[in-house]
Amino acid sequence: MTETGTLERPVETKAKYNLIDCDIHPSMKTPAEIQPYLSQRWRDHLATYGGHTRQGLSETLSHPRMVPEVSRVDSWPPSGGPPGSDLPFLREQHLDNLGIDIGVLVPLRFNASGQRHPDFAIAIATAINDWQVGKFLDPEPRLRGSIIATQEDPANAVAEINRRASDKRFVQVLLPPRSIEPLGKRRHWPIFEAAVRHSLPLSLHVGGVGGHQATGAGWPSYYLEEHHSQVQTMQAVIASLIFEGVFEHFPELKISFVEGGFSWVPSFGWRMDKAWQTMRDEVPHVKRPPSGYLRQNVWFTTQPMEEPNPAKNLADTLRWIGTDRLMFSTDYPHWDFDDPRFAFKVPLTAIEKAAIFAGNAVNFYGLN
Amino acid sequence: MNQAVLEKETGTEAKLGIVDCDIHPAFSTPDELAKFLPQRWRNHLADYGQRSANPLVGTLPYPRMTPGNGMRRDAWPPNGGPPASDLSFLREQLLDPLGIEYGILQPLAAGSSTLNQDLGAAMCTAVNDWQLDKWTGPEPRLKASISVAQEDATAAIAEIEARIGNRSFVQIAIPPRTIEPAGRRRYWPIYEVAEHYDMPIGMHSAAFGWHTNSGAGWLNFYIEEHYAFSHSLQSVVASMVFEGVFERFPKLKLIVVEGGFAWAAPLMWRLDRQWNRMRSEVPHVKRPPSEYIRQNVWFTTQPIEEPENNRHLLDTLRWVGTDRLMFSTDYPHWDFDDPRYAFKVPLSPAEREKIFRENAKQVYRLP
Amino acid sequence: MNEMIRSLESKLGLSTVGGIDCDLHPASPATKTLLPYLDEYWRETFVMRGVDRLSLAMTSSPPRAPINVRSDWKAESGFAGDTLEAVRAQALDPFGTRLAICNVLHGAMIMHSDDMAAALCGAANEWLAREWLDREPRLRGSIIVSAQNAELAVAEIERRAADHRFVQVLILAQNDEPLGRRRYWPIYEAAARNHLPLCIHAGGSNRHAPTATGWPSYFVESYVAQASIFESQLLSLVAEGVFQKVPDLKVVFAESGFTWLPSFFWRADKTWRGVRAETPWLTEQPSDIVKRHVRFTLQPIEAPPDQDALARTLEHIDCDDILLFSTDYPHAQFEGLNALPVAFGETLAKKILIDNPLATYPRIAADF
Amino acid sequence: MVDTAVARQRSVLSQLGAIDCDVHPDAPQRSDLLPYFDDYWKEIVTTRDVDRLELTNFPTRTKPFFREDWKAAEGRGVEKLRRNLLDPFGLKYAILNCVTGVHAIYDPYLAAAVCRATNDWLKAEWLDRDPRLRASLVLPMQNPEAAVEEIERFANDRRFVQVLALCMGEMPLGRRYYWPIYEAAQRHGFSLGVHAGSAYRHAPSQSGFLSYLAEDYVHQVQGFAAQVGSFVAEGVLGKFPDMKIVLIESGVSWLPGQMWRMSKDWRGARIEVPWVKEPPSALVRRQIRMTTQPFDAPSDPAELERIIEHLDADDMLLFSTDYPHAQFEGDAAIPDGFPERLIDRLARENALATYPRLEERP
């Protein structure tokens, strides 16, 4: 973990941005809000067949969460509708209250990449992107959007990226980490190529419906386990990207891992390094120790912050990962929200703080 | 059971040559393929082997009933080596006595299911070279299959293009158990090339893949696994129909190998019925599914289903259509079908001609 | 009234009523509806977690797909069969049905948590007894259980067994493992002990892909694939020796189709002759075991419109005992009242309508 | 090169008589096992050609997996093990973990038969030939009833000290389906060993099957992480408090991060699993143990002690060599930077506390 990557830039404290939130979940007042963004053919399809994903329940995640809409009890807008569905309330409770300069939207509803019907997946992805513009980006300049792309259908994902790239309010391409095949496989490479061409980073937010068991050991019974299995998903994605040679082929590619935590990153890097040292002749296309790519191409958002006991142990973890790799996120309005005022239970220097709360994100998204 | 004696016309054992659509050639020794591989992959194989989603190295997790992964006991060549590894014995036991005019090689365990895709592509190339070198070169009655690593469509197409000029190759071999169902768009570039060159796609039952071997989960016994082979082939047919493959590539030929065929009629009924009801979901499928099947799909006959009342098979033949069926032996596997005894019902000379010879000659474009 | 049923009535003197409908679906209750039938722990945690707001509809039976709602039976709500009045007017009266078995297809059966699944199944059964069976004497019920925890399933069966209006146990076709596996045997023993056939109904958990080749894009394709799942289950039950272990067990395949049976028999019997050393407890060929122990509900009839093929298929099956009358209400399996095509002939029709159900369901026979 | 720290460790090891908790005997072939099958199974494994049972995760052909110097040594079986490991490391006990493809077999009766033969073979060909050897019972997890019978069969042979499962099988190991096995194991004082490896009942990652063996090996950690989650959430740790669970060849450094996250999640989600009364980290520290090879340590040995501190459980780690796999060079079986004050516990005391059957006379 000693190499300095080419994508790293000195951290500058930008007075312009003091707090950037990399993970805000917008939602719809009612599911019908999507309709103006769909053609009649797909409105009919949605009404008749609903979502058709690779899991047992058609409208609901397989492991029920702990609170309604997975959301903070105080985040339900007084005007009605679910949390994150009311822009004025989102401004008031979140952006204004915490002094957020830039907030990045991560829309999760309808799960375009998880849709099995390939044409419906395309229609949904496009609709959600238009909806972000219409409902949030046009009226609120502090918000930024994520391009939803159909990961299982790379050609159409690229088309959608090309279509959105000129709108600079879209700052990243959003993909689900759970997919039919590991992300690093070559069939996904056209997506990486398009992202690099448009200088758009990729972002992977926990979730997705790839049709595989939630852990290599099988299906867990409880949300407590399923929530943790998201970490393993992130590990699988990182290992795949590295061992398939994605970062070797696309050295400029930037990826953030959102809501997967980060305390596992050092040991995972050590393990990958060791396996690579032993078996590098199997993967001659991987030229450097895997942790080197972690230092160069990969960022992590901070929520849900791990909480060691004693808290000071986290300082080691931060040192091992590098505070230049971390970007603050709240996960608003979800129940395990991190408050920027209290999330870090270890002391940070002013420089570290500036980097984690804003500077790293400025570099990652190219916000200058 | 009292009708189970052979009911076949006896006089018409014509001199008619047979086309056997399913012969499994084997390596004499495990390292026979090595000389067809570049050094880089020889080294790799020595250290890492050929990893697939099969949990065991070099062994199937459902042991067969006879040694050699389910071989006929009388098929072990007197000169040593596993069954179907010795050309002269294969001639002596199969081609000559049964009057086989053409035999289609279906090499198994090639690179198609290999997790390392570059290795998979290299293995396919090597197996294709090996078929020419060991089999079709010295024995022109044998015809080869172009093995391809279908999960990497680019590599698969490169291999097809490299072989297409050689008429010893008569089909493209893809296993039915792929990462995604066979009709999904990731595989379309392969179908496009196949249609362009009028090369049929042969899908032979596969012992492992990326998914449980039944929609019900992992089965315990070989008797169940063997049955489930036919389900993966049914899934292939359903997928290619519903994804619109045959609509998009109307001249594509699909051959379903070693799945039997009696299921084809009820499958067509089920497909048609549900298509009728839910065509709004799949508006790109313009015609009843059975029409595509009758136009684009052929079935090899082994392992032929055996009704208690032999004559019931006549209904099935009528429903599936004798123009869709092509005879196969599955030599040298234990459940081999002998052309003399496989059909326990009377076939008209014209039907016989079609099933044992003409359909295959046309589909494979044999001289 | 169905022409076939009418002619039977006059000829055979079935003066009062028609047959016994072995597969009728009241609309699955909303989760909130089940709250009064749950104990305090589940009531409290469901509300707290927002589970009461979730749709637990299964991907394998999207409630609005045309297969699941016959258009002329559709209520204003967009669903069908959601009131007793509708069931009486559409499913019971017009067919002159004497008795109908209610199969509630509820996501309870596929929840990951053993305890949550069991609690929801128990609540759905209680709901069926109170809201349907208490109010309509022509209705009978199936005890739905989640197969993944045999102990809890057995407890539910024993709890319901005293209520003789419950005439069978119902599980779904796709579970964690094939149903012949030993882990499920206690369920079968409990069913047989209480004179309850085991009904295996189309649908499932989607915890793995529904085919060995992965995830079909379309619902229609998945629906077709159900037949393969049923075939696997049938052979699993036979191969693992379930019927040797529990000789009194009757199994009812519901909404499985049956025209695939001849090819199943031919191939399974042939393979058995070759590999029977593997399963030495199988001393008879599979088709004989199936004909003795397994029954199939009539709908859907997957045959060409030409009645000859259907008649030939019945001859191939060569077993008059095997079919049970069903409308599969409110699923769209036939038009008008034509649930029983003329190809069956009157003698067989009578068996299907009355004799076979009576021979299959001891609890119904006892009522006659 | 023998630096002083390593030399000191080595001498401490041999003075103490270390207990090596992960040693792999050569995987038995059919010819090895044949004498231990009854007539029916003898005929079945012969006619059906059930021979080489080797997991795709651990192909014996893979050169980088094995230490060249150990491989090159003369002899076979126990003799070779003595020469390479037992004598030079001055071991008091070595626990044999026979990891074969039996875990991947589907037929529950065939799996049970192969397990029985393997255990009898271990006893006759290994345990009976060197008093320092101990072993794990290989169990057919596909068939809990047969697994329980196998535990009962060996309950009186105290040289079998634990029962063995894979970290990626059909279902997570915490599921109630497996509890009868744990009940029997606890009753007889066996610990539960969970070893790296997958039966490939499903893909080893949520995103499917991985292209490379290197990647596959890295992912074993995820199987272990899921199992720890499962043992905690399903309540196995509370239900079987006397049975230690040993993660074997799991790596070590990933566990603190998991404990942090699970304990935090538990605070928010505990109403879902009301039987879990303590923070997962406390349960894990009390009952889960890990072997130390591989450790997946940072390259700077000075950092190792930080990880030990994060673990905050001096009794969690068990000495292992993972013989004959290539995890370290020379005699450096104890990871560089391992705190000296804990070496005694690592090498001996922790194992004795983990395996109640270990001290008793055979």
Summarize the structure.
The complex is a heterotetramer of chains A (368), B (367), C (368) and D (362). In chain B, 37% of the residues lie in helices and 10% in strands.
Give the topology, please.
The complex is a heterotetramer of chains A (368), B (367), C (368) and D (362).
Chain A: E1 20-24, H1 40-49, H2 87-98, E2 102-105, H3 118-137, E3 143-148, H4 154-164, E4 170-175, H5 189-197, E5 202-205, H6 223-243, H7 246-249, E6 255-258, H8 265-279, H9 290-297, E7 298-301, H10 313-321, E8 326-327, H11 350-365
Parallel strand pairs in A: 1-2, 2-3, 3-4, 4-5, 5-6, 6-7, 7-8
Helix pairs in contact in A: 4-5
Chain B: E1 18-23, H1 39-48, H2 67-70, H3 87-95, E2 100-105, H4 117-136, E3 142-147, H5 153-163, E4 169-173, H6 188-197, E5 201-204, H7 222-242, H8 245-248, E6 254-257, H9 264-278, H10 289-296, E7 297-300, H11 312-320, E8 325-326, H12 349-363
Parallel strand pairs in B: 1-2, 2-3, 3-4, 4-5, 5-6, 6-7, 7-8
Helix pairs in contact in B: 5-6
Chain D: H1 4-16, E1 18-23, H2 30-33, H3 39-47, H4 68-72, H5 77-86, E2 91-96, H6 108-125, E3 133-138, H7 144-153, E4 160-168, H8 179-187, E5 191-198, H9 213-233, H10 236-239, E6 245-248, H11 255-269, H12 280-287, E7 288-291, H13 304-311, E8 317-318, H14 343-354
Parallel strand pairs in D: 1-2, 2-3, 3-4, 4-5, 5-6, 6-7, 7-8
Low-confidence stretches of chain D: none
Helix content range of the residues of chain D, please? Answer: 40-55%
Sheet having the most strands of chain B: 8 strands, parallel
Assign an overall shape of chain B.
globular
Physical arrangement of strands within the biggest beta sheet of chain D? 1-2-3-4-5-6-7-8
CATH-defined superfamily of chain D: Metal-dependent hydrolases
Q: Describe the largest sheet of chain D.
A: 8 strands, parallel
Sheet-strand content of chain B, in percent, reads 5-15%
Oligomer: heterotetramer
Q: What is the class of chain D in the CATH system?
A: Alpha Beta
Question: Mind telling me the CATH superfamily name of chain B?
Answer: Metal-dependent hydrolases
**What's the rounded overall pLDDT mean of chain B?**
91
Overall number of structural domains of chain D: 1
Structural class of chain D: alpha/beta
CATH architecture of chain D: Alpha-Beta Barrel
What distance separates the N and C termini of chain B? 42 Å
CA-based shape of chain D: globular
- The total count of strands of chain D amounts to 8
Helical region count of chain D?
14
Which whole number gives the mean pLDDT of chain D? 90
Q: Briefly, what CATH class of chain B?
A: Alpha Beta
